[in-house]
Amino acid sequence: MKIKKIHPYIYILLTFVSVILVGTCLLLLPISYSKDYIESIGVADYISNAFFMSSSAVCVTGLSVMPHGLFIDMTLFGKIVMYLLMQIGGLSIITIAVFFFTIIGGKIGISNSFILRESLNQSSVTGLLDLVKRIVLLSIVIQVIGTLLNWYPIYEYTKFVDGKGDIFKAFMMSGFHSCASFNNAGFDVFSSDSMVCFSSSEYMNYGLSFASMLTINITTILMIISGGIGIVVFQDIFETRFHWRKMKLHTKLTIITTAVLIVLGTLLLKLTCMDMNWLEALFTSVSCRTAGFATHNIGTITPAAAVVCMILMLIGASPCSCGGGIKTTTIAIIILVIVHYAKGKKTKAFHRSISDSQIFKAFVLVNVAIILCAIISGIVLVIQPELGIDAAAFEVVSAFSTTGLSRGITTILNVPNKIILSVLMLFGRLGPLTIIGIVNKNWMTSSEESIQYVEESVIIG
Known about the structure:
Layout: H1 8-27, H2 35-39, H3 43-58, H4 70-73, H5 76-91, H6 93-103, H7 110-119, H8 128-162, H9 167-182, H10 210-229, H11 231-239, H12 249-272, H13 278-287, H14 303-315, H15 328-343, E1 348-349, E2 352-353, H16 356-383, H17 389-400, H18 415-430, H19 432-437
Antiparallel strand pairs: 1-2
Helix pairs in contact: 1-3, 1-5, 1-7, 3-5, 3-18, 5-9, 6-8, 8-9, 8-10, 10-13, 11-12, 12-13, 12-14, 12-15, 14-17, 15-16, 16-17
């Protein structure tokens, strides 16, 4: 009897779903929330909020349905649960499990190697264990550095809010914020207004120094970029010792596209929303690409700036990172295809050609993302027409790209829409190609078909 092998993508999907359900069960416990929150909410919303928050944490989205902010409505237990869910979601349970398994001297089999390869979006099983160790260790190092750098600015914040400085509370908030920054989760630790208190136009109103404001802004920006650029890029940079010509095509496209998006996004946001100063525009440009923090009230930005944000959110971070979206390399390939098609040439970059299969995947990914976001936006509006097309579309793109920015409607979503966006967050975290790939029955064999058909032209355009 031939044993049918289970598709690796199914394992990946099941691990994420399992963690979300476990997180939901933990967040359903009354010890997760403050007494005021429990008394002010109905049973249906209580259950759906737990599921939504667990999904948002595991999918490192950052959308929150807590009316007064996560750090106010949740107890220490609830915050610890959210922290662990973010770490698991950012690195994936498979990566963490393999890391600890290898630490104690265990070995993974061939089938598990295939699952790990697909989880990390790699083309080969060679060197996977070393890659896993680098991912986990780099994550720990960056988050520890971020926690230490952000501690004093947050300590100043607690002095203003509480009337006295709380070293332990500031350290806890700094650790949570560093985790959310690196994993591109974007959960607020300050208030429901995200990081507006640390904006370059508001910080003095909170009794903060200029140095503290600048420190937490720059540190958060660097951590978001570090978590969103992908460990494969860091590995290539270190292996080539920062030698540009020796770097892989993937690394070059990722670095250039990331830099262009940050600069272009900053300029466009400043031009379309004059209320933003340059630091706020830079922060928003970086954060839009799946992090979800805000130093400027997103609900007050102009419609043109909202469109810029949606484009940046949809593009998202880079492959093999904590971020979502269609990814930087995808948009880079599409732009290269358009440019070379206009010139009547084969697509290439840095003296390397790009295969037709990669081009095909890029276009499939973009089209699926756009169509899916359009359909879900329509469904959300049918269920709650009072939300408005601009806010609903923004929320849907934010959920799909696992960004977490909102124009202020997350807390007023009804139960059906919370469930829909929760599923959409999972879809976006795993990636459309992963979900579509589940139905591929020939994943273990070549994609060549036994029957060949005669080609016939179809009029395009």
